[in-house]
Amino acid sequence: MERVQALEIVKPHLTDHRYTHTIGVMETAIQLAKQEGIDQGKAELASIFHDYAKFRPKEEMRQLIKEQNLGDDFLNYGDELLHAPCGAYWVKHEVGISDEEVLSAIRFHTTGKPDMTTLEKVVFLADYIEPGRHFPGVEEVREVAVKDLNYACIMSLRNTMAFLMKKNQLVYPDTLAAYNHLITERKK
Ligand code: FE
Ligand code: FE
User: Fold this and answer.
1) C-alpha 168 – ligand 1 centre gap (Å)
2) How far is the CA of 54 from the centre of ligand 1 (A)?
3) Number of domains forming the structure of the chain
4) In angstroms, what is the span from residue 49 Cα to ligand 1's centroid?
5) Is 119 within 8 Å of 112 (Cβ atoms)?
6) CA 177 – ligand 2 centroid, Å
7) Please, what is the angle between helix 100-107 and helix 83-90, to 10°?
């Protein structure tokens, strides 16, 4: 699918702010894909659709996760997680994208998971560091991302978990597992 067509499909599902974010994620992901030598088209497609389900009713998403067995875990760690697995499902069944690598990058863009593919890391990280993001520590992650994708993922996972913990919120187990996996790999 061409970029123009993909953007036309996703636009009505997003607010203006979220659409601008999506363009930022797309540009960042393409840049990272180029840097890492992976398929730029897949990075483009996954990032265009990564927040496809962001504004669907929470109840509809909970229902879908239960009915389609998208992973009960996603139900119990805060509503912010729901749009990732539901997005992957609807992008497949409503938009007709069948590339499992692309769908998986959408599915895990919020939580991360252990043993991520490079494409999954690229989309996860692009979502975190796109130019529209402004929060303490993001510039540091941007600087690392251009030379060490894995360490930049470690930093963003760590920041995300610290942020949640400071607010007394739950941490999704696979987010910690993603962190542990990357740290273990790094020590080898
Ligand atoms: Fe998202
Ligand atoms: Fe996003």
Assistant:
1) 21
2) 7
3) 1
4) 9
5) no
6) 21
7) 160
Q: List pLDDT tens digits, range 77-111.
A: 999 999 999 999 999 999 999 999 999 999 999 99
Which of 38, 41, 52, 57 shows the shortest CA–CA distance to 94? 52
CA distance 108 to 158: 16
Q: How far apart are CA 62 and CA 72, in angstroms?
A: 9
Task: Compute the distance from residue 50 Cα to the ligand 2 centre, in Å.
Answer: 6
CATH of the domain at 65: 1.10.3210.10
pLDDT tens, position by position, 142-158: 999 999 999 999 999 99
CA of 22 to the centre of ligand 2 (A): 7
The residue range of the domain holding 165 is 3-187
